[in-house]
Design brief:
- This protein has eight helices and eight strands; from the N terminus they run H-E-E-E-H-E-E-E-H-H-E-E-H-H-H-H.
- By secondary structure, it is an alpha+beta fold.
- The relative contact order is 0.14.
- The two termini are about 35 Å apart.
- It is about 40% helix and about 15% strand.
- It is globular.
- Helix 4 packs antiparallel against helix 5 and helix 5 runs antiparallel to helix 6.
- Strand 7 and strand 8 form a beta hairpin.
- A five-stranded antiparallel sheet has the order 1-2-3-5-4, sandwiched between helices.
- It folds into two domains: about 80 residues, 2-Layer Sandwich (Phosphorylase Kinase, domain 1), CATH 3.30.200; about 140 residues, Transferase(Phosphotransferase), domain 1.
- InterPro entries: Kinase-like_dom_sf.
- It comes from Cellulosimicrobium composti.
- This is Protein kinase domain-containing protein.
Length: about 260
């Protein structure tokens, strides 16, 4: 069982902190704007990974849980950023190398554009839900899922970055958190306020209503009444045909990023 007090990864280390460890193990680090910590590392095969530090717990059971967790994350899944290397970095910490996904964190993408159409939101929701389902099949949970945990490639493909230490919570919590995440991407339901008319396009209005119905099911107060992650993905896919995510213009992305730095609150 995971420790009730799992140790989350430290914030990404400065390149100088991990440079000797990476180089000694055959990795070549380089600066990469937009990557966590601003650095990635490349191995001899050309694989590009982000770099994170993870504390090793002192308790034997928690250490064993961490080993199992990182080993499970090393298995390939198209919707999960996988672990590609684990290096010792001192007596009580590890350097963990995780697939680098070129693109934007979902929270930054959402801040730089208008609300998602229902079909775009489903394009994000389905692979993230399938990534959660993969974790759940292995008796793991994501915990604390929010838009910053999802990266969207330039082609509009969503990839989930799982936590690098065992998380607490339940699979039903993950489904609820994903529904809340998507709820924040799309316009509110037409019934949310008497003055809100909803989309003018009848097809978009139908899609939005259908998506909100599935989100409401995933947000039920009773965890047992929420669908499993895989079922949630399938129901949303059946309810609304996915459409490509519209990526904002480069200038808008830069302006949004600068605005976020100046007003982090």
């Amino acid at each position: 069982m995971p420790s009730p007090h799992p140790r989350r990864p430290r914030p990404p280390a400065e390149p100088a902190d991990v440079l000797p460890v990476l180089v000694a193990s055959g990795w070549t680090p380089r600066r990469e704007p937009g990557a966590p910590g601003g650095v990635v590392a490349t191995d001899a095969t050309g694989a590009v990974c982000e770099v994170a530090r993870v504390e090793v717990p002192a308790e034997p059971g928690a250490r064993a849980a961490l080993v199992e967790h990182l080993d499970a994350l090393s298995q390939d899944h198209e919707h999960l950023a996988g672990v590609r290397g684990v290096l010792q970095a001192g007596e009580s910490s590890l350097v963990v190398l995780v697939d680098h996904v070129d693109g934007l964190p979902l929270d930054e993408l959402a801040a730089a554009r208008e609300p998602f159409r229902a079909a775009e939101a489903v394009t994000v929701l389905v692979p993230v839900a399938q990534g959660l389902a993969a974790l759940h099949r292995d008796a793991r949970v994501h915990g604390g899922l929010d838009a910053a945990c999802v990266r969207v490639t330039p082609a509009g493909r969503a990839v989930l970055r799982p936590p690098l230490a065992p998380a607490t919570g339940t699979s039903a919590d993950d489904v609820r958190d994903l529904a809340r995440l998507v709820l924040g991407l799309v316009p509110p339901p037409a019934s949310s306020h008497p003055s809100y008319a909803g989309p003018e396009d009848p097809a978009e209005a139908r899609d939005l209503a259908a998506l909100h119905a599935e989100l409401a099911a995933a947000l039920r107060e009773d965890p047992e009444a929420r669908p499993a992650a895989g079922t949630f993905a399938a129901r949303c896919y059946d309810a609304v045909e996915p459409r490509p995510v519209t990526m904002p213009e480069a200038a808008r992305l830069v302006a949004g990023a600068l605005g976020a730095r100046r007003d982090p609150g």
